[in-house]
Predict the structure.
Amino acid sequence: MGRIKKPVTFRGTTDCREAIADWQTWMEHERRVSPNTIDAYCRDLAAFFIFMAEHLGAVPSLSNLESLDARDYRSFLAQRSRHGLSQSSVARCMSTIRNFYRFLNRTRGISNAVIKTIRSPRPKKLIPKPLDSSQAKDLLTTIKETHGEPWLIARDLALFSLLYGCGLRIAEGLSLNDADVKDLDTVRVTGKGNKQRIVPVLPSVGESIENYLNLRPFQYSPNDALFRGLRGKRLNPGVVQRRMRELRKTLGLPETATPHALRHSFATHLLSAGGDLRTIQELLGHSSLSTTQRYTKVDAKRLFEVYQKSHPRS
């Protein structure tokens, strides 16, 4: 079972809480932000209001938000860092607060010019850590050779094959319905911001999906979840992550070998085989090419390692 998230409460006056409720509705229905992202943003904003209530000595109101100065914001960022948040998490907190202020300015005419001058910490640009092609192949072979309930083995193989063979995020794979893979030649993926893309399915991946469809014990309609748990409900990400930890231990893989690493592997292996960045960008569903360009650094690092090992003068 996944961990149940506690509801987010905000320490603010009535006008603040009403504005926050409108902001949440706007993100959900107009911006079409995913529930998990909205939850993260709300927790960031709740932390800001808790801090400001203690910092100001009173429950914050909208007028308080207008009068905050640079020291107030910097104190909040410093407190977040002291609590052990990473630079990227602290930067996201500040991004959330700016987002909320922009909403307040547009809907209630409330603004604070100072917040535009506050610099967020620059998160480190992490290079993706993919599996190499032999590790990815061994992973899928190990799933296939597992002893257990045939339909569960077929499910795991179909899901992990999709993550690696189509470059899906784990949330994208688990949100698939039957209708999204009806012809087995392509998969219709709903990514971030509810943006849809069509990704071609390799024959081996299609065979894995078809085998799972033939073995699963539940009755399905086109709008039912493709991947189900033991009780027939949509498969929980925690189950997939736990399965990956088991496989990682069996194969002696590093801790960086996560379900998301299969998506990194998909992109890196395509790039190594001569795939162009624009195509890989479309397949991954990246809105910006700069996000896809991270994989060129992975490929360059791999080429340099091969060069050092192979060149006669190395």
In short: The longest helix spans residues 35-56.
